[in-house]
Amino acid sequence: MNKGICRICGEYKDLTFEHVPPKSVFNNAPATIISGVELLKSVSDDDRLPWEFNKNSGKIQQRGKGGYYLCAECNNKTGHWYAGEYKKFVSALHYGIKQAGDKEYKAMGMKMVDIRPLAIFKQIMTMFVDINEGMLGDDSLRKYLLNPEKTEFNKDRYNLYAYLHTGAIERACGISILCSPLGMVTLTEISSYPIGLVLYIDKPKNYKPEGVEITSLCEYKYDDLADLEIIIPKLENNIIFPGDFRSKEEIKDCIKQTQEHMKDITEDST
Lower CB count within 10 Å: N or C terminus of the chain? Predict the structure, then answer.
């Protein structure tokens, strides 16, 4: 058994494997898991592009993406309360993508009928608590997730954004810092077909993330049914860094410019 601190209840218990995202939303097949350090090493050692990593440097998880994050009780409770509605939400996105087929589009407009927004939101927050130790530094989230009826949520501190996932890699990034002209941006990201999710913490007011904000899902009661209309953009994941949605061509151009700049510096110094 894997013993440790459950990331929701905070108690030292036997931990069970928690799928992130849930097993029922396209996460039931073997996955190659590569840490950020190993991925950077793999790319730099062989002079490969960021998406051309050596899969031999990773670990194959037969049951899918996830880890030993939660005790059985918290795993079962959150799965029962929240995962079913989240599956409906993600399945609707998958259906829309399949309907679009090979058509080119930058965003997709969708309407979902009779969904339970708060359950979807709490499933997403559960996933972010899973991949980040210490309740994101906010112990109030513990009671929020362990009581499906609880609606108090700090919308001033958290902003949740979503996008349609495309690109060469999937990401599960713990709390990270992004440098922007408006200052430091704190974020954590989970991106796996068909949806990418980014949670911003204390986001600078003038900072405009890519994606569509869905923080308002937290404003409903647990049993509320609602119709959700959403225009969700399609963004690419081709590099390990959270919040980086550059295309392969944009990344190649950046690498080329950097190499040319370094060459100029070398020539000037000789």
Answer: C
Which residue shows structure tokens 């890519």? 210
Q: Where in the sequence is the domain holding 120, given as residue range(s)? A: 84-269
How far does CA 129 lie from the centroid of its chain?
11
**Span 113-165, pLDDT tens digits:** 999 999 999 999 999 999 999 999 999 999 999 999 999 999 999 999 999 99
* Under 8 Å between Cβ of 8 and 143: no
Residue 241 in domain: yes
Read off the pTM: 0.92
Helix and strand numbers (H, E) in the chain are 6, 12
Residue 189: strand pairing partners: 173, 198
Domain membership flag for residue 64: no
Note whether 58 and 34 are within 8 A (CB): yes
And the tokens for 103?
């058509």
In 3D space, the residue among 183, 189, 203, 202 whose CA is nearest the CA of residue 235 turns out to be 189
Q: Angle at the Cα of 149 (from 147 to 153), degrees rounded to 5?
A: 80
In a domain, 78, yes or no: no
- Count up the domains in the chain and report the number: 1
Q: DSSP secondary structure string, 89-153?
A: HHHHHHHHHHHHTT---SEEEEEEEEE-HHHHHHHHHHHHHHHSTTGGG-THHHHHHH-TT----
